[in-house]
Amino acid sequence: MEAVVGLLVMLLAVSHGVETTCDVRQKDGAQCYGALGGTVDLQLMDRAAEIFSITKNTTTILRWKNNKISPNIKADKYSFTPSDGMLRISNLIRSDTDDYTLQIRNSDGALLENRTLRLSIQAPVSSVRLVTECLSQGEMRVSCSSEGGDSPQYSWTLDGHTLTEDKLLSGNHETDSITLRQDVEGVLRCSVNNHVSHFEKYQRIFTCVFINCTDSNERRITQWVFAATNTLCVEPTTDTTVDPSLICGLQTAVAALLFIGIAAYFAWRKNKSQRAEGSAVPQEREDPETSV
């Protein structure tokens, strides 16, 4: 069920695109941004004036008079809400980047207000990837790359704090690639954003260690690697197999000791029996009368 919901959300995001807003009320020369393929809402006024028009460069895209829009407007592209003075531009493309001018007039046609805004269309950031590697002295280089996205801006934090010089060997917290000093570890975050999107990527980083060993193919390896994920050199396991000849020798020794023990036991029993028989024979005594 969760997978289906996630797929629906993804499809909705693709079909509707990114929506942005820009408030240009009482502002001249405002800068607004829209996402490529998305929609932008331009807050032109609090509510519709009696007569006004909007031009893109020199082409009129919307004209309002007598509480209605001129019939030549592209309904699938531009829409206006009189109650809140909002102009919506949908299905944004690169060519929508341009200057837009709002002119408000009174019932006599006199110009009351003239304002211009700049709309810029940007491709949103779609994903972020972190790549880490150990360098020759145990430092760590981390690169942050993004898919899509016009004019991306980068920022870094370590364990929630902005990276400082005591952690950085080169680069800064606003570049796409940094080099961290030895023994720096923790949760690293790279943020990529532009005016229409924002993406973040978290990764736990570990220190680099130097290995000098021989692998299973008898190849010598000397390099810096990540301590937590080192699989290049694995310590050999102790062979617990017993030599069969040793087992045979031990069995022979045990049998010999057992035989000697049995022989000694029966010899002791025989000797004890002979002593018992000797002590049971009565001794002759001399008669005092016949003695000399």
TrEMBL record:
It is found in: Membrane. This is Ig-like domain-containing protein. GO terms for cellular component: membrane. InterPro entries: CD2/SLAM_rcpt (IPR015631), Ig-like_dom (IPR007110), Ig-like_dom_sf (IPR036179), Ig-like_fold (IPR013783). It comes from Pleuronectes platessa (European plaice). Residues 1-17 form the signal peptide. The chain crosses the membrane at residues 249-268. PROSITE patterns: IG_LIKE (PS50835). Keywords: Glycoprotein, Membrane, Signal, Transmembrane, Transmembrane helix. Residues 124-207 form the Ig-like domain.
